Amino acid sequence: LEAPEEVILNLNELAQGQKFMAVNSFAYSDDNALLAYSSDVNGHRDYDFHLKNLATKEEIKTPLGKVADLEWAADNKTMFFVT
To answer: What average pLDDT does the structure give for the chain?
Structure first.
């Protein structure tokens, strides 16, 4: 049996009410519990950081703002990012 398809990040949903939507970086934690990604809503490559709990499907609030690129460390807690 195949597992049912699961939408992890719905760009159409994220784009609602926006004139522009793009996702730049997209990275899962090694344990697949969290998804970190950056999105731009103005077309100027001003990417905002987002962190999503994949079990609850909810975004986790963080103090990070603009990021250009991101990557997880193997401990599932540490993130490296470029602003």
So the answer is: 92
Tokens (6 digits) for 61: 């609030």
Pull the structure tokens for residue 14.
């994220």
Q: What is the pLDDT of residues 18-48, one digit of tens each?
A: 999 999 999 999 999 999 999 999 999 999 9
CA angle 68, 29, 2 (to 5 degrees): 120
What pTM was estimated for this model as a whole?
0.86
In sequence order, the 6+-apart residues with CB closer than 8 A to the CB of 36 are 25, 26, 27, 28, 29, 49, 50, 51, 52, 70, 72, 79
Residues 6+ away with beta carbon under 8 Å from 46: 40, 66
- Beta-strand ranges (E) seen in the chain are 22-28, 34-40, 48-53, 58-60, 69-72, 79-82
